[in-house]
Amino acid sequence: MASLSYQVHLTDEASDAFGDDPVRADSVEFYDSGAWISHVDGRDFFPYERILRIREVETTTDSSQEPGERRDASSGTAGTVDDADLDVG
């Protein structure tokens, strides 16, 4: 079964805590000043000036994935985008 997740590419300054790879997010909630990113290790807020790109990716889900790897359906549709990249930088 396919589901959606997100790759959040951060600026160098914001990447210090997460490493150079994009943050894999279960959901993204957009607000006026930034976005709340829900990921395997928790939930973090990033101002838009620290986000380079948010990419929606399709993933396959199976029982071998770690908990939290799937998008939380209870979060609703807040923050969903179409199949395009969102460049905010």
Quaternary: single chain
Tell me what portion of residues adopts beta-strand conformation: over 45%
**N-to-C series of helices and strands:** EHEEEEE
Q: Give the helix tally.
A: 1
Quick structural overview:
The chain is mainly beta.
Task: Report what the structure shows.
The structure is a single chain. This protein is 4% helix and 46% strand. It is mainly beta. The protein starts with a strand and ends with a strand. Residues 65-81 have low confidence and may be disordered. The protein has one helix at residues 12-15; strands at residues 2-10, 23-30, 34-39, 42-47, 51-60, 86-87. The chain has a domain at 1-56: SH3 type barrels, CATH 2.30.30.
Note the topology:
Elements: E1 2-10, H1 12-15, E2 23-30, E3 34-39, E4 42-47, E5 51-60, E6 86-87
Antiparallel strand pairs: 1-2, 1-5, 2-3, 3-4, 5-6
Tag the structure with descriptive keywords.
SH3 type barrels, six-stranded antiparallel beta sheet, mainly beta, single chain, 1 helix, 46% strand, 89 residues
